[in-house]
Each structure stands twice: as C-alpha cells, then as structure tokens.
Specification:
- The protein is built from ten helices and 13 strands.
- By secondary structure, it is of the alpha/beta class.
- The protein has one domain: 3-Layer(aba) Sandwich (Rossmann fold), CATH 3.40.50.720.
- Helix 3 packs parallel to helix 5.
- Bound molecules: uridine-5'-diphosphate (UDP).
- Uridine-5'-diphosphate binds next to helix 6 and strand 8.
Length: 314
C-alpha cells in the first residue's frame, strides 16, 4: 500500500477515529478528519496538529461539504456511540446516521473513493440467537429508547448497500461490538469507562439490573486491526468485528475491582429498557475471509485501559 493513500475520516476526533488516525498516518499521504466535536475531543489529535499530512475540519457531516483534496478512502465513523450520548442527542444521532451517511457516500462517489461504514452490534437489537452472525436480521424495537442509534445505523447500512448496487461504489461495513481502550471519554457512560472511573476513585460500581446480561469486549487494537483488514479487502462486504470472549457484567465488575485493587462496593441500579441480554459476535466470516483474529485478552486490554485512565483522568 505504501505511503500514497489519502483518507477522509468522519468522526476522527472520537475514540475509535483518533486511534485510527494514529495507526494510519505513518503510512498515509494524507489524513483528513471531519468532526463536529459533539462527543469527539481535539486533544485526541494533539500530536498530529503540526503534521503536514494531517488536516482537521470542524465540520458536521450532516451538512454537505466539497473537498478539494484527493481521497482514496472515506471512513465514516461520525456518530454518538454510547447509549448515554445517543439518548441525550437522539435527533443528532439519527441525522448523522442518515443524512450524514448519504453525504459521506456522496463524497465517496465524487472522489471515486472506497467507502467504509462503522456499523454496530446494535443493529441486532436484543438478539434472540447467539452468537450473532452477519445473516441474522436482529430483534429491534423501532420506538424504544435505543432506536435512534439502532435505526440510524440500520439506515446507514441500507444506504451503503444501495450505493454499492446502484452506483457500483466500493462500500464495506464493519459491525463493531463493544470496543474499549485508551482515549475513551471518562464520562461517556459506557460500562468499561464507568467501572474503571468508579473503581480508581473508590466510588460505588453501578451495575444495571442483576448484572447477568453479557457482552463481549474488544480492545481497541483488535478493533482497529479488523477495520484495517476491511479497508484493504478487495470487495464490498459486511463483517462482525470484535472479540468473541463473552462475560457477564457482574464478572466485568469483579475483574475491574481486582485489577485496580479498588475498595469500591457494588450497587445495583435499574436495568435500562431494551438493554440487550446477551451479545457475542460470530467471527467465523471475518476469520475466514479477512484472516481476522483478536489478540488481546480482556485482562491485558483492561490493564492498558486502566493505566491510561490513571494517567489521564484520576
Ligand atoms: N452497564 C452497567 N453499569 C454502567 C453502565 C452500563 O451495568 O454503569 C451495563 C448496561 O446496562 C449494559 C452493559 O453494561 O447491560 C453495557 O453497557 P454499555 O453502555 O457499555 O453499552 P451497550 O453494550 O449497552 O451498548
């Protein structure tokens, strides 16, 4: 691939986006970031501000933009991503997944660039089968408190697919399962950030419901590896990306208390409506076609994340 690739990353100041910029910029000719900084943070990109290869536009992809630069890949990540953020900004979330995706697809077309969509395990809703494979259509409540995110990403997938079939665009989709790691915002409300923040400050650990619900957590490095493999894949396709090690939220809390040597005690709060009971990616397609294999076990990833939180947020 060499150093001649030009990337446009929407949402590039966010958690996944800024980690992706760090990864891509060494081998890229140009990395352009669009972000409206609603949940992203420019500090995540500080070290690139004086790099000629890097360009930042404070722009909301919900509004059209004409770019003069040549672009090879449009990587569309812009969206609120945590339940806390998307339920606080429901209309914004719907617009970035719908209008924002159409605008990003339009940029791809005009620039003859490949398109990548960051989709989500949320499109499976509260799944009735486990693990979830790419052919599963999901169990989604269109009117529920998570619907602004689920439906915006489902629309984004449908839009990508329509541009692939109608305009012969190269368009790929990653359904990203619960990702965690350095550069998460400590107040984004997600379970890993909440538990680490609470544990290192010896505050109560808030388990929603009885904690028997499961998730499968992917360390950011593994998620980025999956994204890169999809970016380099020759054909348009959809893949689950994540880690298929599944644990309960109770187990996650114990692990984080142990790793931080915290004195926190556990308290239970109401389970949010429509909170998925289980979530685990079927990775067989990504393994077979992309050669994808997550490498970070939960303990290793949590240790790195805790270290980063201790340095940056305590
Ligand atoms: N959760 C929790 N305590 C918290 C935050 C979240 O028990 O302080 C639970 C939440 O109810 C869900 C799981 O942890 O069952 C994962 O929540 P998160 O917001 O990280 O993402 P989700 O997978 O629901 O999109």
């Amino acid at each position: 691939m060499g150093g001649s690739i030009r990337y446009l990353i929407t949402g590039g100041a966010g958690f996944i986006g800024s980690n992706l910029v760090d990864k891509l910029i060494g081998n890229a000719e140009k990395v352009i970031v669009l972000d409206n900084l609603l949940t992203g943070n420019l500090q995540n990109l500080d070290k690139h501000q004086n790099n000629d290869k890097f360009k930042f536009y404070n722009h909301d992809i919900q509004n059209p933009i004409e770019l003069d630069e040549e672009i090879d890949h449009v990587v569309h990540l812009a969206s609120c991503a945590s339940p806390f953020a998307y339920s606080n900004y429901p209309i914004n979330t719907l617009k970035s997944g719908s209008i924002g995706t159409i605008n990003a697809l339009g940029i791809s077309r005009r620039h003859n660039a490949k398109f990548f969509l960051a989709s989500t395990s949320e499109i499976y809703g509260d799944p009735e089968i486990t693990p979830q494979h790419e052919n599963y259509w999901g169990n989604v409540n269109t009117l529920g408190p998570r619907s602004m995110y689920d439906e915006s990403k489902r629309f984004a997938e449908a839009a990508t697919q329509s541009y692939v079939t109608t305009h012969n665009l190269h368009g790929s989709i990653a359904r990203i399962f619960n990702t965690y790691g350095p550069k998460m915002a400590f107040d984004d409300g997600r379970v890993v950030t909440n538990f680490i923040h609470q544990a290192i400050n010896n505050q109560d650990i808030t388990i929603f419901g009885d904690g028997s619900q499961t998730r499968s957590f992917s360390f950011i490095e593994d998620t980025l590896d999956g994204i890169m493999k999809i970016l380099n894949h020759e054909s348009s396709d959809v893949f689950n990306i994540g880690n298929d090690y599944e644990i309960t939220i109770n187990e996650l809390a114990s692990k984080i208390i142990h790793l931080t040597k915290s004195n926190s005690k556990i308290i239970n709060k109401d389970l949010p409506i429509d909170d998925p009971k289980q979530r685990k990616p079927d990775l067989s397609k990504a393994r077979k076609i992309l050669g994808y294999e997550p490498k970070y076990d939960l303990e290793t990833g949590l240790k790195e994340t805790i270290g980063w939180f201790q340095e940056n947020y305590k």
